[in-house]
Amino acid sequence: MGKILDYDEMNDILDSLDSNFIKKEKSIGYTYFGYPINYYVYGHGKYHVIITGGTHSAELISNVFVIRFMEKLSKKEVEIDENLYTIHFIPIVNPEGTIIVTSAIRSLIPRDISLEEEQTYCLTYYRNSYIEGDYANKYGNRDYKLQQMMFRHATPDILDDKHKELKEYLIDLFKKNDLPMGCMINWSSNGRGVDLNSNIESSSFIDRVSNGEKIYANLHLNNIRRDKLGPLGCPYFKKGEIEKENEALLNFYNEIKNKYDYIGSFIYHSCGNIVYYLGDAKEKNPWVNLTNEDDNYKVAKVYADEVGYKLDGLEIYTTMDSKLKSLFPITLLVELGGVRATPLSQFMDFDIGGSEKFKNVYSKIINDNIEAIVKTLDVMVNVCKKK
Question: What's the CATH code, domain 7-96+243-385?
Answer without folding.
Answer: 3.40.630.10
